Amino acid sequence: MSTKTSAVTRRTVLAGIGAGAAAMAVAPKLAHADKAAADDSLAKLLGGVKPHDGKVKIKLPQIAENGNTVPFTVTVDSPMTEASYVKAIHVVAEGNPTPGVASFYFTPTGKAEVSMRMRLGKTQDVRAVALMSDGTAWQASQEVKVTIGGCGG
Amino acid sequence: MPTPRVKMPATAAKGEVFEVKTTIDHDMESGQRKDKDGKPIPRKIINKFTVTLNGKEVFKADWAAAISANPYCSFFLTATESGTVEFKWQDDDGSVYSTSQAITVS
Amino acid sequence: MRKTILAAVIAAVAGGAAVPVLADPPFDAKDPKYAPYIAGEKRSGYTFAEPETRAMQDDDFSNPGFLWVEEGKKMWSKVDGKAGKACKDCHGDAEKSMKGVGTVYPRFDPHANALLTLEQKINQCRTERMEAQPLKFDSKPYNAIATFVKHQSFGMPFAVQTDGPVAPYFDMGRRLYYERRGMSDVACKHCHEDYWGMHMRTELLSQGMPNGFPQYRLKWQTLGTAQKRIRGCFEEVRAEPYPVDSLENTVLELYATWRANGLRVESPAVRK
């Protein structure tokens, strides 16, 4: 899938309706979290363990057709045995009114993968952090562009 | 009353890793919305989801208001023993919705 | 060369930030995987959807619309009303008796001497045969039984009738479809006939084919009917919507469904 981030490169029609829709679509002012709030929220969940980059993959659409239902899958590189497994995966959205999305708690079974759907209030970074049985923490993050203001937005 | 749906194999070979798909109809009212009169609609979400195998917890999740309506959650288990997998969704209002499925491990 | 008329408006709204513009989803009319979603020049909304949305629809479990199908399945055999009947008592196995039914509504009903949507027909059955209360528009049971019945025609091509007693309704539907309305002063046809495939701001305009209804919309975070969606369209062009089940809204549903004749029933589809 190709993605474009600039409106200038796209064909745009129906200026009349577009202007109307744009006027309607001015988002209500909501308090939003930021990177610092997400950091705080994660620090509490991780009990102070500092996450490293790596071992975690987060799969998200690059462009969410609608922010109300954004599918995500988090996968962690782990054998999921008694000796070495993922204890928890925490997902935070840096630009939502509150950063917390979900925390998943695993036991040494299956594989370290979970899928759900979340709400994203605007274009923002989504972060997933895995806390391992050896006490280390690993993270990944991805930006999701959220479509706002269309008929489906 | 929400109706949960669960999809997982009824039989599995010992040691086999299988996917469990779950979903339940629930508005997951975030507490961020307002009604037509401008009054905030109180938060009402499923905040906890637990999965046990023969009474022993194998997977658990805490959900925030950012989880979409009609929450869908899929994850994986290893077939270790025959028995019952029980699923519980816990609502903000204290209600618990549950369902279970038998699995035969050979 | 692609021209942009709205860049200034978009920049103003976005506060100067980069605005995501949906790329045309990869679409190759010759790709066999799209064949069930195309009929000649007609394209289901599925072909305009992003891959993640299509994937959600494709799997009967991950598709949230099936929560309504399951609920409707239970209702089918549940007794309700003074006559002490369930749908099943007259109609038997829905997989057989309801197969194809979803392809012909809205339809002229000689008994009611009116054009009825599938949902209106179900409520007629409830009040007259079951002596039960009609289901409330957009309620869980209303949407559930309609989706269950419609789903029995899954994959079958639409074939609504437009002649005979339907002709005056069809003519009215066509007239309304081409009538400019609202503060945006546009007709249905401007988006869905003249400019489909193009972008209106961030919106990739589809052909407006209603073959997926009742369908799960990501925006609604729930499932709804064509009657509800048509009203949403009116609001989007800043026009006063016609009331639910009004003659106007019903003939518009008829005209829109006739446009989809040949496309297959996808209910419950998943759309943005």
How would you describe this protein?
The complex is a heterotrimer of chains A (153), B (106) and C (272). Chain A is mainly β and 153 residues long. Chain A has a single domain (7-146), classed as SoxY domain (Immunoglobulin-like), CATH 2.60.40.2470. Chain A is built from two helices and nine strands; from the N terminus they run H-H-E-E-E-E-E-E-E-E-E. In chain A, strand 5 (86-93) and strand 6 (100-106) form a beta hairpin. Chain B has one domain (4-32, 44-105): Immunoglobulin-like (Sandwich). Chain C is mainly alpha-helical. Chain C folds into two domains: 7-62 and 158-271, Cytochrome c-like domain (Cytochrome Bc1 Complex, Chain D, domain 2, Orthogonal Bundle), CATH 1.10.760.10; 73-151, Cytochrome Bc1 Complex, Chain D, domain 2 (Orthogonal Bundle), CATH 1.10.760. In chain C, the strands form four sheets. Chain C has a three-stranded mixed beta sheet. Chain C starts with 6 loop residues before the first helix and ends with a strand. The chains are: A mainly beta (153), B mainly beta (106), C mainly alpha (272). Chains in contact: A-B, A-C, B-C. The interface between A and C is large, with 43 and 52 residues. Strand 6 (100-106) of chain A pairs antiparallel with strand 5 (56-63) of chain B, so a sheet runs across the interface.
